[in-house]
Design a protein that fits this description.
Chain lengths: 84, 117, 171
């Protein structure tokens, strides 16, 4: 089904467009918000691409990304708060 | 089968629309906390719609229960962990903006009144 | 530091075992034995930080049914808030943000955290802080569209249905 591939490419392009916010964001918190959104978008893209290509390995990568994506967000948040 | 295929298309398009709204919000909103609000669209309805579509595809076309369960676990993981990071990051953004004297776009500020004298 | 209780260890063990079975998805005897060993070890270490209240709360069928009803309510609120946020983004990003203090009547820790995470997960509201003042808990919520100024009216608009559902599950 070709629409799975189209969806995966669309999600990856959205994640690529967020690199603009990571590059120019005025504060560190802006960059971290965009990075967090990038993480979720790439997980969605990997789910769709795994369904398109029929390989299970992309699902494992998406699972690791989803499970460990919170750690950097919490680390940067605690650092900005001054409690690290 | 054609109905299931149509349903998968509708779900992927709905997820794409909500993810587009979230990404555009992150690019266009004027303030850090407002950007965070807009980016919450991506892990909620964007991920839920896409994961439902992929679960339907794995169940009806690939006949693989393991893939369906794993996609459900991925979606659940994203949805459960997102609010925790969002909450910590919101507090960090507020505190660092107060410390560095950055102007924030807030019309009512009870938190600053009660906690930052 | 709490004492390690048997019920807490058992419930954490069941949760870890379920996650192991879902992740590996193979039912051969060796995999299951390895899962039992790993789950037991992690349950022994983790359960004292993980469970502070009644461990078997959800084995009560009324509470379980209320939790499922709450999931339905939450999904409806989620779709409503998402459509509202999408309209706001596509229609020119008009915002009127502010941080408002909202008092709440929840008492138990699990209920407080479930309600705070539900509020954060709906687009348009983020819980910045949970504070306890004079025996009453209150949230500080960043709200993107301040249609109500006072705390009670804002609380009714933000968490009206959610708090009723949460109170039926915990309390």
């Amino acid at each position: 089904m070709i629409e799975l591939l189209i969806g995966a490419v669309f999600f990856a392009l959205l994640a690529l467009s967020l690199v603009y916010r990571i590059a120019v964001g005025p504060t560190s918190a802006d960059r971290m918000v965009a990075g967090d959104a990038c993480d979720s978008l790439l997980c969605c893209a990997m789910i769709l691409f795994s369904m398109f290509s029929g390989r299970g390995i992309y699902l494992d990568i998406a699972l690791i990304g989803a499970a460990l994506g919170i750690i950097d967000t919490m680390l940067i948040g605690r650092y900005l708060e001054g409690r690290l | 089968m054609i109905i299931v295929r149509f349903l998968i298309d509708v779900l992927i398009i709905a997820g794409g629309v909500f993810a587009l709204a979230g990404a555009l919000g992150v690019l266009k909103m004027p303030d850090t906390l407002c950007r965070m609000q807009a980016s919450t669209c991506i892990p909620t309805l964007g991920t839920i719609c896409v994961a439902l579509g992929a679960i339907l595809y794995a169940a009806f076309f690939k006949h693989s229960a393991a893939d369906a369960v794993k996609i459900a676990v991925i979606a659940l993981m994203i949805i459960v962990t997102n609010p925790i990071g969002s909450h910590v990051l919101a507090r960090g953004a507020y505190t660092s903006a107060k410390r560095e004297g950055t102007e924030m776009l807030l019309n009512v500020d009870d938190y600053g009144r009660d906690f930052h004298e | 530091m709490q004492k390690t209780r048997f019920s807490a260890v058992l419930s954490t063990f069941i949760l870890c075992m379920l996650v192991w079975i879902v992740l590996t998805w193979s039912f051969s005897l060796q995999e299951l034995a390895a899962g039992v060993v790993v789950s037991l070890a992690s349950a022994l270490f983790v359960s004292r930080f993980f469970i502070h209240e009644d461990a078997f709360r959800f084995f009560n069928p009324v509470k379980l049914l209320n939790l499922i009803v709450y999931a339905g309510t939450f999904c409806r609120e989620l779709v409503k808030a998402n459509v509202d946020m999408a309209k706001r983004v596509f229609g020119g990003c008009k915002v009127n943000p502010g941080i408002v203090r909202v008092p709440t009547g929840m008492k138990s820790d699990y209920g407080l955290s479930l309600l705070a995470n539900s509020i954060t997960l709906t687009p348009g509201t983020i819980t910045v802080e949970v504070a306890e003042e004079e025996g009453e808990n209150c949230y500080y919520i960043h709200w993107i569209d301040m249609t109500a100024e006072s705390g009670e009216a804002a609380g009714e608009a933000i968490k009206g249905n959610l708090e009723k559902g949460t109170r039926r599950v915990f309390d």
